[in-house]
Write a structure and sequence with these properties.
By secondary structure, this protein is of the alpha/beta class. The protein contains twelve helices and 14 strands. The structure holds S-adenosyl-L-homocysteine and iron/sulfur cluster. S-adenosyl-L-homocysteine binds next to strand 10 and strand 12.
Length: about 350
């Protein structure tokens, strides 16, 4: 089986080239061909020697997940369903804005963490994505979108906010993000690559050590009792530990704050009293808030908070000096909004079956 060069960050690619008797600068050349020019055919990498091209042809390949469907929403948001084999599919979403273009990348087939309000969590879990399957989403989207008329990159930002919990697939996600940051890869700065986590505390510390990109933390509740229910990983890493981990992360983060995401669920976590509790909770943490109006999916059991309730909640945070934005809903007519990604997950946790039998999931 030929090795897939999309699986390799710069260090591993250089290692592979050493194994086949090639110099490190050759690895850098190939990395540029693959990621900057989107080339998958070795014979078209014109500045490589014939001998090297032949060697690569026989022992290597560049293979991204293949596209099963491609849809564009009324607001220009575009979503691809990519096949990752064995009837599993993952989703990648491109969100165009006036001053930037953001690609939302998946890290797992499904998610094992079962947050109550998340469609991906509802789908169950199959497996972690490989490095090739993670970076392959950017590789593919970059090719599909091309450059702007001025020759600028259309994708200026990447957010690890698609299907899955990125820190639960730590090594592959870090390798893929290294390629995003590499000058011979996509050359994005650490501020333009954002990872969102539901709060895997030990992995947040590892990320701080290994590759401190911009961090968002899915908070969603001001106290442990409610968060235990909405974000079950809280039972393992409760709020005091999570807040302490955020403070440690900020010391090395590319920005001097973390962003807390807070999904607005009508009558569940959106009262003025809860906003006040939240202000207390994040007291010592340098942070911003991003309120996300809940995006519905069938049988979720939740409703989106009204704009008035969201406004009142935001006012409490703002009056306490916390910069708060409300995330615009994008691409919901193609189920491409936050929390709506479902892909095709061959569930191995039998979550759906248990739910159908009425057992607590
Ligand atoms: N697993 C990671 C990243 C993927 S989810 C995490 O949980 O942070 C990206 C964001 O969308 C998270 O903040 C998540 O809580 C939020 N989200 C999930 N379901 C949602 C829904 N139905 N409506 C709005 N936001 C949702
Ligand atoms: Fe997983 Fe994030 Fe969805 Fe929770 S919100 S189930 S961690 S993808």
């Amino acid at each position: 089986m030929p090795v897939n060069l999309l699986d390799f960050d710069a260090e591993r690619l250089t290692g592979f080239f050493a194994e086949i008797g090639e110099k490190p600068f050759r690895a850098r050349q190939v990395m540029r061909w693959i990621h900057q020019f989107g080339q998958s055919e070795f014979e078209k990498m014109s500045d490589l020697s014939k001998g090297l091209r032949a060697k690569l042809e026989s022992g290597a390949m560049v293979q991204a997940p293949s596209v099963m469907s491609d849809s564009t929403a009324a607001d220009g948001t575009r979503k691809w369903l990519l096949s990752v084999g064995a009837a599993n599919g993952i989703e990648t979403v491109f969100i165009p804005e006036t001053s930037r273009g953001t690609l939302c990348v998946s890290s797992q087939v499904g998610c094992a963490l079962e947050c109550a309000f998340c469609s991906t969590g509802r789908q169950g879990f199959n497996r972690n994505l490989s490095v090739a399957e993670i970076i392959g989403q950017l590789w593919w989207a970059n090719r599909a979108l091309g450059a702007s008329p001025k020759g600028e990159r259309v994708i200026s930002n990447v957010v690890m906010m698609g299907m899955g919990e990125p820190l639960a697939n730590f090594d592959n996600v870090v390798s893929a993000m290294k390629i995003m940051l590499d000058d011979y890869g996509y050359g994005l700065s650490r501020r333009r690559v954002t990872l969102s986590t539901s709060g895997l505390v030990p992995a947040m510390d590892r990320l701080a050590e290994q590759l401190p990109v911009a961090l968002e933390v899915s908070l969603h509740a001001p106290d442990d009792k409610l968060r235990d229910r909405l974000v079950p990983i809280n039972r393992k890493y409760p709020l005091t530990e999570l807040m302490a981990a955020c403070k440690r992360y900020i010391k090395v983060a590319p920005r001097d704050f973390v962003t807390f995401e807070y999904v607005m669920l009508d009558g569940v976590n959106d009262s003025v009293g809860q906003a006040k509790q939240l202000v207390e909770l994040v007291g010592g943490v340098s942070c911003k808030f991003n309120l996300i109006p809940f995006n519905p999916f069938p049988d979720s059991g939740f409703e989106r908070s009204s704009p008035e309730r969201i406004g009142a909640f935001r006012d409490v945070l703002m009056q306490a000096g916390l910069v708060t934005t409300t995330r615009k809903t994008r691409g919901d007519d193609i189920d491409g909004a936050c929390g709506q990604l479902a892909g095709q997950v061959q569930d191995r946790t039998q979550r759906k079956a248990k739910r159908a039998l009425g057992a607590p999931a």
